[in-house]
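Chapter review: from sequence to fold.
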Amino acid sequence: MTKPDDARDDKKAADAAADKPTGAAPLQRRSMQALVAAILAAVALTALDIGTKTWAENNLSRERMGEPPALCEENDGYIAYQRLRGEPQVLIADVLDLEYAENCGAAFGLMRGAPAAARRVVFGIAATVAVTALFLLFFQGRGGSLFAWSVPLVASGALGNLLDRIRYGYVVDFIHVHYEPWDFDYPTFNVADITIAVGVALLVLDSFRSEPAPAAQPVARDADKGADAAPTEAKGEAEPEAEAPSSEPDDASAPGESGDDRKASDEPGAETA
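The token string follows.
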């Protein structure tokens, strides 16, 4: 038999456990619609990158006549292009030009002098791992809104440059930023480089951005039903139901005895007739 005090203690312990936070709530996966939207955005940005590179090839360069030079082979600090450069198009004098260039390295010319085989392996693996990991983390619900925006940006940039390496063995660049008075000459880049840079910046900002703490999830209280029933049962056993007061007076007369006779018998010195 459960004692009332023990049952009440069990009830209090169960309530305290139910009210105690269980820590961070589990991650809420992003919907399939959000994943599809991110993939479509990455595809659209990749198409934009490939389209602008094709425009640059057709308008800022032309094909060589005869045998092209060795691919990405450096001679005396200079790499001969596979295509001949045309006249650059000046958008802002001494600031911004559209100028054809072939980049054998990564974004903004990184790994330019590495062997061709090493570049293909490193860039191929890096792009595949980056795109897969980003979309996996996106679907799992990682990061905040800035992270969600960064995924299609970084993924499209990685895919756009990877497609160039698969097709040509190099990446087509055509955006040239410089400032002659300061002797500033930034490496030529493309749309994919821009999306990668913006996406990485959003990733960094998202890592410092404080998201609101998720609401604490209470412990399931299914077991409390038994704890609620136990004190009630114990209380019923420990506190028996009080008897209803009798409707008859304590000094009720015996059957057949009148009120006068009872009064007479109660008087001192009264004798029986």
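Two observations follow directly from the output. The helical segments are 4-19, 32-60, 116-140, 145-167, 191-208, 224-238, 259-266. Confidence is low (pLDDT under 50) at residues 247-259, 261-267, 269-273.
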